[in-house]
Each structure stands twice: as C-alpha cells, then as structure tokens.
Specification:
globular
C-alpha cells in the first residue's frame, strides 16, 4: 500500500528525475489514493478474508514480473540463504498486519485514521533511523517529530485513548520499510518472496472458509468472485509500478510525492465517505501538515545542497 518512499533507499538513487519516473510515481500514488473505494466496496467481506485474497492472487502477478525481468535466479539464490528467508518471513509478517489493519479500518469507517497514519509514517521512519541506526536529527526533523507527537496527543485526549489505527499503520509500515532495506534482494524479488511465504496460510484459510460455506469466493455471486480476484491486481500492480518509478526519481522527489496518497485518502474520507471531521481533528491534522511542511522544506534544502556540492 500506499507511502513506501522509504523503500526507495533500497535501490540506487538516480542522479536526477526523469519524466517517465515522475509520471509513473504520480500514477502509483493516485492508485493508492483511490484504493479506499475498492476497500469500501468490499466492506462486507471480513478483513482477514480480503487480505488472504490480496496475498494469494498477488503471487502469479509477481511471478510474471520476475520472469519478464529475468530475475528468477535471484529467487533461487535467496532460497538457499537462511538469513534472507528469515528476514523475508519477518517483513511478510509485518506487512500482513499492515494490510489487515488498513482493510479493517476502511470498512469500519476509520479512513481518516489511516490517512493520519500514513502522514506520520515518514516522520516515524526518521525517528527509527535515529534510534536504530544512529542517524543525526537536525533541528527541522526534531521540530517535525515534535509536532507529530503533539497531534497524536490531541487525538488521544479527545478520544480517551491512543488513535490505535494510525499508530498500528505507522509502526507496521515503518518497521516494514526499515527491515526491507536489509534484504539482499530487489523490491520486486522481495515482494514475491513475501507473498509466496504468506500464500500457504492464506490459501489454507480460504479453503477452511469454503469448507464451512462462509467464504465469498465462488459462494456469493460473480461480483464478489471478480472483486476478490481483483484484490491481487490492486495489491501487486502499484508495487510493481513503484519499483520502476523509484529507480527514475531522486529520493527528495519521492519524499514529497508520497503525501499524495494520504491526502487523497483524507479527502475521500471526509467528502466521499462522510466521516466526522471536527475542530479537534482539524487541529491535529494541521499539526501534521505543519510537521510535513517543515520536513519537506528540510528535504528540499538538503537536496539542493547535495546538487551544489556535486556540481
């Protein structure tokens, strides 16, 4: 899903932006931005069942991509490396949690919380880099993180508890991106390994549902069957496009464009789904937007400095 700009660090950073990369990135962030409409249309399907279909039907699409890329040898090599398999099992587990929370939240009318989570994610990734990798936090980054913490505090006071959907999405995607960077395979190969590992329990769960007559695939009509088959497309295709776009854009450009998807989710939640948006939520989101403005300005300033040094 949406907001995997941090995964771009796993590929070589290009020296400049290309028109093709920009258009592909724009396409993929719009696809992720419109994803809530699909999830809402499938709100009658339990989240676990929908996630199982997202996983299972992503496998053939990811396999076709690897054959087309002629990178199947990477998979054979990875299968002989216990450390790679262990790390992949970890990232697969984390991303399955992220998907499950996201699917449930959209169906439960909490799309605003998903937007907040994906807004906070890049700031949490900065925090992880500082804590786990010893990366230096400059003043703008500290200010941005502080503003995000204030936003979460406001929502916590308002609701009487942590906005757990936002926190779960932030933590799961942040740790997924962090551990994904350590995988000694490319993004497409890593995604294929993840969905293959998850496909066995996903298929077993689908069979169990079918045996009880509780599933929606081939059970409740053509609409559900086609839409569940489409779950693989909405999962795998954006990730495949992103993997291509990330190679043709600088990290600073990706860092700015990643806000397109949560902004679209925010607008859809308020204006299409009619989720309540009071003054307290407005204050919290205003703090997040301010944090992202500070972070983005710092990112652009660093990028200009790097170009000036290179020049």
């Amino acid at each position: 899903m949406a907001n995997i700009a941090n995964d771009a660090k796993a590929v070589a950073a290009p020296s400049g932006d290309t028109r093709e990369g920009f258009l592909l990135a724009l396409l993929v962030y719009f696809l992720w931005g419109f994803l809530p409409f699909y999830m809402k249309a499938m709100a009658h399907v339990p989240a676990i069942e929908l996630v199982a279909h997202r996983i299972f039907w992503s496998v053939p699409l990811a396999a076709v991509l690897l054959v087309w890329m002629r990178r199947t040898s990477d998979i054979r090599r990875a299968l002989r490396e216990p450390r790679t398999l262990a790390l992949t099992a970890m990232t697969a587990s984390i991303i399955s949690v992220n998907w499950g929370v996201y699917v449930w939240a959209i169906a439960a009318g909490r799309a605003l919380e998903t937007a907040l989570g994906y807004y906070i994610n890049p700031l949490f990734s900065i925090f992880l880099g500082a804590v786990l990798l010893g990366e230096k936090l400059n003043a703008p980054k500290l200010v941005a993180i502080g503003l995000a913490v204030c936003a979460v505090a406001i929502l916590t006071i308002q609701t009487g508890g942590l906005p757990w959907v936002s926190i779960a999405l932030t933590f799961s995607w942040g740790f997924y991106a962090f551990f994904k960077r350590t995988l000694p395979v490319g993004p497409a190969q890593g995604f294929f390994l993840e969905v293959v590992m998850l496909s066995a329990p996903a298929f077993a769960y689908m069979i169990w549902l079918a045996s009880r007559g509780a599933g929606h695939f081939l059970e409740t009509g053509a609409y559900d069957t086609v839409m569940l088959l489409f779950a693989g497309v909405v999962t795998a295709v954006p990730l495949i496009i992103y993997a291509t776009a990330a190679k043709k854009l600088t990290l600073s450009t990706i860092g700015i464009m990643q806000y397109i998807a949560p902004t679209m989710i925010f607008l859809i939640a308020v204006f299409a789904f009619g989720e309540p948006f009071d003054r307290i939520k407005l204050a919290a989101f205003a703090l997040i937007w301010a944090a992202l403005a500070v972070y983005s300005a710092s990112l652009l300033r660093d990028a200009r400095a790097a170009r000036a040094t290179a020049g």
